[in-house]
Amino acid sequence: MAAEPFTGSTEHSPVTHHILSVLVENKAGVLARVAGLFSRRGFNISSLAVAPSDDDATFSRITIVVDAESTPIAQVVGQLNKLLNVVEIRDMAPAEATERELLLATVTIEAADRGHLLQSVAHAGASIIDFSADKVTVSLSGTPAHITAFEALLLKSYPSTEIQRTGLVALPRLNPQV
Amino acid sequence: MKITGAQALIKSLEAQGTEVIFGLPGGAILPVYDPILDSNIRHILVRHEQGAGHMAEGYAQATGRPGVAMVTSGPGATNIVTPISNAYMDSIPLVVISGQVASGAIGTDAFQECDITGITMGITKHNWLIKSADEIPEVIAEAFYVATTGRPGPVLVDLPKDVAQSQMEWHEPPSTADLDLPGYHPQLDGDPAAIAAAADLLASSVRPVLYAGGGILKSRASEALIKLAEATGAPVVTTLMARGAIPDSHELCIGMPGMHGNYTAITAMQEADLLVSLGARFDDRVTGQLSTFAPDAKVIHVDIDPAELGKVRRADVGIAGDARRVIEALTSAVEERQLEDLAPWWSQLHAWQERYPLTYDPQEPGKGLRPQAIVEAIDAASPAGTIVVAGVGQHQMWAAQHWSYELPYTWINSGGAGTMGFAVPAAIGAKVGMPERTVWAIDGDGCFQMTAQELVTARIEGIPIKVAILNNSYLGMVRQWQEMFYEERYSEVYLSTDVPDYVMWAEAMGCVGIKVETPEEVGPAIEKANAITDRPVVIDFRTDAMEKVFPMVPAGVSNSEVVVHPSQREEA
Questions:
Q1: Do B122 and A82 make contact, defined as CB atoms within 8 angstroms?
Q2: Would you tell me how many other CB atoms lie within 10 Å of the CB of residue B378?
Q3: Residue B157 backbone phi and psi in degrees, to 5
Q4: How many angstroms separate the CA atoms of B109 and B184, rounded?
Q5: What number does CATH give the domain A17-92?
Q6: How far, in Å, CA of A44 to CA of A65, rounded?
Q7: Residue B111 is among the residues annotated as catalytic for this protein
Q8: Taking CB atoms and an 8 Å cutoff, what residues of chain A touch B309?
C-alpha cells in the first residue's frame, strides 16, 4: 500500500463551532454536573477535554466544543454559570482562540511502506512515538483542521489505523484575527 | 469540644435557625436521630417521605424561611425526589438531609444504598456528599446559603452513616461572607443603564402590562410591585405562582393569565405593546403557543436568574437582579418621566372585564355541587389571611380563580411541576409555619388519595388543617381533556363515587369527617370546620363531575383563541 505525502492544509476550514473554556472547582462529580447539564437541556457536545489547571489542582479547566448553529450559546453559558462549581466561562469563536488538539494513531504497516508513512509524518510535523515489527504509533498536535486532514490521510492509506483524538483545548488568541 | 458528626449536623441546623424538621428515620440516618432528642428543633414524624418534602415546601412558601426535611438512604431518599423536583420548578428554598450507607460501602450496592446525589443532580441547585465530619458546619452553612439566596431552590446534603458516627472537633459554622463558594455570586442590583432603558420603554408604552410571577413573592416585593403599579397606572396580572402578590381587589389587578386565566388577563398580555416580566419566566402555561404570543409587545424581563433572560422570549431589555431592588429602582426612574395616558387602554380592559367575567352555571336542583361556589363559600366564611393550599388539577384552577387573594403568601400550590398530592402535606407545613392562620387545603379526590395518610401526622402532631375535597369521582382535569380533545373517550379517569368513604377514612385518621351533598349543607359544614381548632377536618364535597374549567386556552393554541365559558360564546 502506497502512502501519499501529506499535503493537508493548516488553515481553518469553515467552522460553526464555539469553544467554551470553563474553569471549575476540582471537586468530585463536577464533570458529571457539566455533562448532565448538557444532556438534560438538550445541548450537544462536539468534544470535551478536562484537566487540572493549577499546581495544587484546586481548579480544572474544561474545554467544550459546541456547534454554534444548533446550540443556543448564550443559554448554554447561562445554565453553566448556575452550576455552583463553575467559576468562570470564556466563550470563544474560533477566530478568537488559539486551538490545539492531539492525535495518536497506531498504523499497521509493512516494512516496505514505512518510507511513505515517514514522509507523511515529516510533512505533517507529526512524530513516531512507538513501533513494533508491524505497527507504528504516530503523534500529531495541531489545529483541529490540520489533525482532521492528517486523520483522513491515514485512514485512506491505512484503513485499519486505530485513532485516538483528545478533543481540542484552547486559550484566547493574543492578537485576535480581525 | 469533640462531638459526633451527627451532633455537629444538628448543631449546624440549629445555627441556621432551623425550628422544625420534617422527616422519617431509617438505618443510615439513625445516628442523626439520637441528638434530635437533645435539641430544641421540633421534629415532625411523617408517614411517607414525600409528605416530609411537601410539608417543608409548604412551610417555606408560607414563611419565606427554608424548609428542612430529613430522610434515610435508598427508598427514603428516592421518596423525596418528587418534592425536590417540585421545589426546583417553583424555586422553593428546601434543605434535604439524607442518610447514606457508610463511606466504605458506597458503590457496593449495599443495603438501602442509592446514588441520591447523582439522582438529584439535575433537580437541585447543588448537592453535597459529605466525606468527613469536619466539613459538616461548612457544608450546612453553604447549603442554607445556596438554598435561600439568588433564585431560591432545593439542595441536598448526603451524610454517610460512618461520618455521622465519627468524632470531630466542633467549630462554629462560617459566616456567609466566609463561605468558600468561588462560583456563586447572585446578582441583586440591576444594571442602572438597563433600568433607565426600561423606564423609557414604560414611559412610552400605551398598552403596558406588569406580568408578576412567583419571584415577586420570593423577593418579598409585593409592596414594591404595588408602588410600581400605582406609579405607572399599568394593569398587573398575577400568575399562578404570584396570586396575592397584589390584592385581587386592587383596581390595577386584572387577575391570573394563562391556560385557565381570565379572559382580560390573557388578552391584555396578548394585545400589550409592552410586557414587564417581574420574576416570571414565560412558562408555556402562560404563553400558550409561543410563536403567536403577545406579537406586538416589547419585553422588559427582570429575573434574578440571568439564564431566564431570553430563554423563552427575547427581551428588549433584560435586567438580572432581585425583583424588589429592581422594581424599586424602576419605580424611581419612572417617577422622573412623563408617562403616556393609559385611559384608552383601561377602557378596553374594562370592556373585556364586563363582557367576559369569570362565571359558572348556577346550581341545578338535584345535581352535583358547583365546585366554584364551594371555593367562594369557603373564602367568604374564613378569616382574613386564611392560607389556601391546592393540589393539581381542576380544583387547583378553581381555587386559583374563585378565591379573592388579598395578601401575599396566602396561596400555595404546585405550579411548575404539577405534583398531584401536594395539598395535604403542604397545608400541614404551612400550618406549622403559620400556626395562628387558618389553613385550608382545597384538594381533588384524585390528589387526596395520593397523600392523605399525612392527616395521621397532622392529628398526632396537633396540626389542625382543614381539607375541602372537591370530589367529582374523576381525575377531573384529564377527564376534561378527554371530553374536549379525545371525543369523550374516557380512558382510566373514573375513580369511584362510593370508595373510599372519605368520612370514615377521615375519622379513622383521627380527623373530623363531613360529607356535603346539597347546597344547603355547604355553609354550615364550612362554619363547623372553621370552628374546629383541635384536629384536622375533612369535608367531602360531592361536586358535578361534568363541570369544566373555563376559560381555557388549549395546549399549543394561540392565546388569541381563548375558549370562554359556554354562556359567553357568540353563538350563545
A1: no
A2: 27
A3: -120, 120
A4: 34
A5: 3.30.70.260
A6: 9
A7: yes
A8: 78
Find where cell 516494512 sits.
Answer: A111
Q: Which three cell numbers stand for residue B520?
A: 344547603
Is the four-CA dihedral B274, B277, B281, B287 of positive or negative sign?
Answer: negative
The closest alpha carbon to B324, from B305, B309, B304, belongs to B304
DSSP summary character for residue B28: T
Strand partners, A5: none
Q: Interior CA angle at B337 toward B334 and B343, to 5°?
A: 85
Q: How far apart are CA B411 and CA B413, in angstroms?
A: 7
For cell 432545593, what's the residue? B154
What pLDDT does residue B78 have? Answer: 98
Give dist(CA B566, CA B572) in Å, integer.
7
Q: What is the reported pLDDT for A10? A: 44
ipTM over 0.90: yes
Measured from the Cβ of residue B499, the count of other Cβ atoms closer than 10 Å reads: 9
Q: Please give the residue of chain A at the shortest CA–CA distance from B182.
A: A87
For chain B, which ranges sit under pLDDT 50?
572
Pairing of strands A135-142, A127-131: antiparallel
CB count within 10 Å of CB B428 equals 31
Q: Which tens digits make up the pLDDT trace of A113-131?
A: 899 999 999 999 999 999 9
For residue B291, which phi and psi values (nearest 5 degrees)? Answer: -70, -20
Report the C-alpha dihedral over residues B374, B379, B381, B382, rounded to 10 degrees. 130
User: Pairing state of beta strands B411-412 and B387-390?
Assistant: parallel
| Domains in chain B with CATH codes | 2-178 (3.40.50.970), 192-355 (3.40.50.1220), 371-542 (3.40.50.970)
Quote the cell numbers at residue B511. Answer: 380527623
* Helix ranges (DSSP H) in B90-133: 116-119
Report yes or no: B358 and B370 within 8 Å, Cβ to Cβ: no
List chain A residues with pLDDT less than 50. 1-3, 7-13
Residue A25 near chain B (CB below 8 Å): yes
Topology at the third CATH level for domain A98-172: Alpha-Beta Plaits (3.30.70)
**pLDDT on residue A112:** 87
Q: Residue with C-alpha cell 435539641?
A: B39
Q: Is B311 a catalytic residue?
A: no
B8 contact partners, CB below 8 Å, separation of at least 6: B133, B136, B137, B168, B170
Q: Which residues neighbour B292 within 8 Å (Cβ) at sequence distance 6 or greater?
A: B558, B559, B560
Query: Is the alpha carbon torsion for B219, B225, B228, B232 positive or negative?
Result: positive
Contact residues, chain B, for A32 at CB < 8 Å: 118, 121
Domain extents in chain A: 17-92, 98-172
**Active-site entry in B477, B509, B541, B547:** B477
pLDDT for res A178:
55
Residue A177: what pLDDT?
64
Cβ of A84 within 8 Å of Cβ of B118? The answer is no
| Residue B48 contacts residue B81 (beta carbons within 8 Å) | no
**Amino acid identity of B408?**
P
Is residue A34 within 8 Å of A74, Cβ to Cβ?
A: no
The two counts, helices (H) then strands (E), for chain A are: 4, 9
Rounded to an integer, what distance in angstroms lies between the CA atom of residue B177 and that of residue B192? 25
Contact criterion met (CB < 8 Å) for B183 and A33: no
φ/ψ of residue B333, rounded to 5: -65, -40
Amino acid at A153: L
Residue where the block lists cell 370546620: B529
The residue count for chain A: 178
Whether chain B has a CB inside 8 Å of the CB on A51: the answer is no
